[in-house]
Amino acid sequence: MRVQPLTVGPLQENAYLVWEGGRGFLVDPGDEPERILAALDAAGFTPEAIYLTHAHFDHLGAVADLASALKLPVYLHPADLPFYEHADIAAEAWGFSVKKPPAPSGFLTEGDVLPLGGRVLFVPGHSPGHLAFYFPEEGLLFGGDLLFRGSIGRYDLPGADPEALFASLARVIQLPAETRVLPGHGPATTIAEEKRTNPFLTGLP
After folding, report:
1. Is 92 helix (H, G, I), strand (E, B) or coil?
2. Mean pLDDT over residues 181-199, rounded?
3. Span 111-124, mean pLDDT?
4. Would you say the C-alpha torsion 82, 84, 85, 89 has a positive or negative sign?
5. Domains delineated in the chain
6. CB under 8 Å to 75, separation ≥6 — which residues?
7. How many Å apart are CA 164 and CA 41, to the nearest integer?
8. Which residues of 18-34 are buried (b: 16+ CB within 10 A; e: fewer)?
9. How far is CA 184 from CA 92, 130, 144, in A?
10. How far apart are the first and last CA of the chain?
11. What does the DSSP assignment read for 131-147?
12. In the chain, what are the helix, strand and coil shares in percent, each to the nearest 5?
């Protein structure tokens, strides 16, 4: 399985192209749809779907254009639907602009299976419907804004829940130590590195 990160937009969000052979998908295409389309062309595959870890506007700013251009279905957790449906309004409140995304094609929740062997984990806290996508055979976790190198997702935003966030973190750090975490912002890390150095994880079981 191949993964190509693209850091996009003014908030430096990490979008991911994921594929094997001619089959693949997109995770959190947050901005710069033309750049993502060019990367897809270079990679040589057409994605089957867009999967969102959560529906904050910086993670879905390219969804409208990509879904239209490639006729892609979009999936997220139902608890984040209000954020998804009002992403354009939320962006304006922060001084940014995104196109209103199309209605989602369906919803994801704990235990659902993604293409190429992915498993959906429900890890709320940063948002009510936050998901992570775990690929055990590859040792990869697309963590969205749950866990960063040396930090964690914000829990002072509308709909955030610090108690739920720390419960989600406690769960995720039980994954194999060598699991590589591909976050929504910033550089990749590993579970082992974060358990060893991340000050926010001190005291978690």
Report:
1. helix
2. 97
3. 97
4. positive
5. 2-201 (3.60.15.10)
6. 49, 50, 51, 52, 104, 105, 106, 107, 108
7. 39
8. bbeeeebbbbbbbbbbe
9. 21, 12, 4
10. 32
11. EEEEETTTTEEEEETSE
12. 30, 25, 45
Contact (CB, 8 A) for 184 and 53: yes
Residue 75 in contact with residue 49, Cβ under 8 Å? yes
Q: Can you name the residues that pair with 2 across neighbouring β-strands?
A: 19
How far apart CA 48 and CA 82 sit, in angstroms, is 24
pTM: 0.96
Report the SS3 class of residue 200. helix
Q: Which residue has the tokens 């912002």?
A: 185
Contact 185, 14 (CB under 8 A): yes
DSSP 12-61: TEEEEEEEETTEEEEE---S-HHHHHHHHHHHT---S-EE-S---GGGTT
Query: How far, in Å, CA of 175 to CA of 1, rounded?
Result: 20
Q: How far apart are CA 119 and CA 135, in angstroms?
A: 6
Residues, the chain, total? 205
Q: Tell me, what's the pLDDT at 130?
A: 98
Q: Is 81 exposed, middle or buried (0-12, 13-18, 19+ CB in 10 A)?
A: middle
Residue 161 near residue 170 (C-beta atoms within 8 A): no
* Summary mean pLDDT of the chain: 97
pLDDT confidence of 203, banded at 50, 70, 90?
A: confident
Q: What DSSP assignment string belongs to 94-115? A: TT---PPPPPPSEE--TT-EEG
